[in-house]
């Protein structure tokens, strides 16, 4: 009886080893890099050369292979990219990608997400400008594109849906009646994300998240030291401060305030476009996908997607149909709750006056040039 038992156990062990060998052979024979370029980009959201660059960056931060049949780093990264890009369930990703089991997909996703959340990686790819030179460079981009001086970023909040958490559920139930984390994002004029905080529940308003943001403290310190040359742009969910410029509510038509609001809205739309590009490429963050993880794990995945967004954006990669993806994402944005925001120290009104004066000076110059052009025929 014992002999039959050991024979059965040995046969079961042989079958398990054969399954592992078959999976390894399948991975080696069906390399995703053999896919056509457009199909590869559609599945993994990066080009093949960019994927190879990413492997070189992340490989030192991934666990080493402890046995010969272990999943290699490039397959781990591809598995994570497929999940970030498509969302849904781990089993579905594993079935469509090299026959990986749900457990293997879980392990790949864990390892790659942890690698992308390594402090060294986060500091390299998500960096708010701190030095005068860095602040001036970001400010120059906004001024050249939108004509507002001193802007070093646009701040906005965006909800990422998660499953109902086990602990402190009320903190994650937002006003649109689903569970989420409220992600604060600051971006520059080129859609690079300079700062992200994915640690607050969806019940927290944008202003509360901003109140605990280190960038808020940094900007306040700059102004306290008399270096208040720079500011951020935010919508009406935030309180007006010298370092955070918001729209003027109920501005009269044709007034300086209305002109300021138009310039402000044009520049601040960068934040909407940035969130649209982020969620359009890494669709696991879309509201209908729902990250089926605890708030902490979901926050790490958001950080990972932000790193990948900057990695792709800085390489100049634009997804096909990105404009349509942007529109789909903007439809899902949460409804803005405008707050009355008083310009206590007059900093916003001073900026309104500067922009209005610059507009009038520009119009005068245009009229002057037109007058000179019309008179040249009579000289």
Explain the overall architecture.
- Its main location: nucleus.
- InterPro entries: HARBI1-like (IPR045249), HARBI1_dom (IPR027806).
- The protein has 379 residues and is α/β, with parallel strands linked by helices.
- The protein is 55% helix and 9% strand.
- The protein contains 14 helices and five strands.
- The protein has helices at residues 2-29, 37-44, 48-58, 73-86, 90-96, 102-116, 119-125, 132-146, 206-211, 214-224, 256-281, 295-314, 322-331, 347-375; strands at residues 151-161, 180-187, 193-201, 231-233, 244-245.
- A five-stranded mixed beta sheet has the order 3-2-1-4-5.
- Strand 2 and strand 3 form a beta hairpin.
- Helix 11 (256-281) packs across helix 13.
- It is elongated, with a radius of gyration of 26 Å.
- The model is unreliable at 21-29, 364-372 and 374-379 (pLDDT under 50).
Helix-strand layout with pairing:
Elements: H1 2-29, H2 37-44, H3 48-58, H4 73-86, H5 90-96, H6 102-116, H7 119-125, H8 132-146, E1 151-161, E2 180-187, E3 193-201, H9 206-211, H10 214-224, E4 231-233, E5 244-245, H11 256-281, H12 295-314, H13 322-331, H14 347-375
Stretches where pLDDT is under 50 for at least 5 consecutive residues are: 21-29, 364-372, 374-379
Largest beta-sheet details: 5 strands, mixed
Radius of gyration: 26 Å
Residue fraction in strands: 5-15%
Question: Can you count the helices?
Answer: 14
How does the overall form come out from the CA principal axes?
Answer: elongated
| Termini Cα gap | 118 Å
| Biggest sheet, spatial arrangement of strands | 3-2-1-4-5
The number of domains is 2
Cofactor: a divalent metal cation
Protein name: Nuclease HARBI1
Subcellular location: Nucleus
Organism: Bicyclus anynana
